């Protein structure tokens, strides 16, 4: 029920997705091992301690009471350190959440990370978060062991001290403390001391999960170079491309030549394979026949920008989302921000605008502009666009298309609904895709 509740909370827009993933997938094991298991074991141990305590008190009330009182000293380290233990657990949980967030960012943006050749940078970021998380976990575990060690020391003291006191009090006849009583209590009280020691250990484990249960590698050289290898003056040549799915032909004989800076829209009925065609051009799918080439070679990931309806944004500033932690000057960033119209919309200090919840605080049109600005910043020769305006209203869609049509690059766009008049006014070539290939319309 705990995990169902936490996962259900993730559907609330105010809950960070990374927090929900962290709670369900990463904290689950710790809570299982350090909360649920100790709770059941604690109940069993408590029954044994109570039974032993009754026997000890019946053997000799005075010396038995001394045994029990001294045994409670074992709880002191756990009681004194529980607040600090909670803080250690909270720090580890925060570090773990950040680790999960960077992992999610990397997996969601692996296409863009490969296109912009920033894998080494993001893997270094991941390594930093991983090392930080491991350090916090080690500190939490070390403090937990320290508490347990202190508790064991107190338990040893509470075992031997009553024996010394019992020998001293054996000279008082009224107390009826005999050697046999001392030996009996020494043997029996061990179960009380041992049980209390186990209870202390279980308690420290449970305390370490308090914050969690009340929660609202060599990666290769980093060249830092994602600039296209191919000249922007070169054209794109698609020759006899074909695709199959489950041994059924989706389309065949797709031929297309796109000159430098030309814009092409590919349309067609749903299910005809428009997105499949783009994936093949981008190298995400292997074609069953044909080829996709520039005039002097095959297309490389760093030669194009692939933008879909869902733009990859990660938590950070717009500056971070544009540079992807590479070195670009603010002057360069301001130039592309102005080109895509973000400076006008976001105003002063737009580069410092904080993106949260993976772009939840920016509009769909703004997210598309950020994705386009990434490509402009790196002078990408090809923009591959998959239904990027399908979720925008007509006005916003036209604004994005006006921007796209004036990019100094080849543009291949799959679109279902678009302004045909605007496309013709800007010299855009429109092709219809069918199972037999492409036909200009």
Automatic annotation (TrEMBL):
GO molecular function: ABC-type transporter activity; ATP binding; ATP hydrolysis activity; ATPase-coupled lipid transmembrane transporter activity
Entry superkingdom: Bacteria
Listed transmembrane segments: 35-55, 61-81, 145-169
InterPro entries: AAA+_ATPase, ABC1_TM_dom, ABC1_TM_sf, ABC_transporter-like_ATP-bd, ABC_transporter-like_CS, P-loop_NTPase, Type_1_exporter
Main location: membrane
PROSITE patterns: ABC_TM1F, ABC_TRANSPORTER_1, ABC_TRANSPORTER_2
Name of the molecule in the record: ABC transporter ATP-binding protein
Species this chain originates from: Philodulcilactobacillus myokoensis
């Amino acid at each position: 029920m705990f995990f169902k509740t936490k996962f259900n909370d993730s559907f609330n827009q105010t809950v960070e997705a990374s927090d929900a993933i962290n709670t369900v997938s990463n904290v689950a094991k710790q809570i299982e091992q350090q909360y649920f298991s100790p709770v059941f074991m604690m109940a069993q141990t408590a029954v044994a301690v109570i039974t032993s305590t009754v026997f000890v008190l019946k053997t000799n009330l005075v010396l038995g009471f001394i045994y029990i009182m001294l045994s409670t000293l074992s709880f002191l380290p756990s009681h004194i350190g529980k607040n600090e233990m909670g803080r250690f657990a909270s720090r580890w949980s925060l570090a773990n959440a950040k680790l999960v967030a960077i992992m999610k960012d990397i997996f969601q943006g692996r296409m863009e990370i490969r296109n912009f050749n920033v894998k080494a940078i993001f893997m270094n970021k991941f390594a930093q978060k991983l090392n930080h998380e491991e350090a916090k976990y080690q500190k939490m575990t070390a403090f937990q062991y320290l508490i347990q060690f202190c508790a064991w020391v107190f338990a040893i003291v509470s075992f031997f001290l009553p024996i010394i006191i019992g020998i001293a009090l054996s000279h008082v006849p009224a107390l009826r403390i005999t050697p046999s009583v001392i030996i009996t209590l020494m043997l029996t009280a061990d179960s009380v001391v041992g049980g209390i020691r186990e209870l202390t250990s279980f308690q420290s484990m449970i305390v370490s999960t308090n914050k969690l249960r009340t929660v609202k590698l060599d990666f290769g050289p980093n060249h830092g170079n994602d600039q296209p290898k191919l000249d922007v003056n070169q054209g794109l040549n698609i020759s006899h491309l074909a695709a199959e799915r489950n041994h059924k032909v989706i389309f065949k004989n797709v031929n297309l030549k796109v000159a430098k800076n030309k814009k092409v829209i590919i349309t067609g009925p749903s299910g005809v394979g428009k997105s499949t065609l783009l994936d093949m051009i981008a190298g995400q799918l292997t074609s069953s026949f044909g080829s996709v080439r520039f005039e002097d070679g095959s297309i490389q990931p760093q030669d194009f920008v692939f933008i879909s309806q869902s733009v990859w944004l990660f938590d950070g500033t717009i500056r971070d989302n544009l540079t992807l932690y590479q070195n670009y000057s603010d002057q360069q960033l301001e130039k592309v921000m102005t080109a895509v119209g973000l400076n006008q919309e976001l105003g002063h200090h737009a580069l410092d605008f904080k993106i949260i919840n993976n772009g939840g605080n920016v509009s769909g049109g703004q997210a598309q502009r950020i994705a386009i600005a990434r490509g402009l910043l790196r002078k990408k020769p090809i923009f591959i666009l998959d239904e990027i305006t399908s979720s925008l209203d007509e006005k916003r869609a036209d604004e994005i298309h006006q921007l796209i049509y004036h990019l100094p690059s080849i543009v291949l766009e799959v679109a279902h609904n678009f302004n045909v008049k605007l496309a013709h006014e800007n010299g855009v070539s429109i092709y219809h895709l069918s199972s037999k290939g492409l036909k200009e319309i």
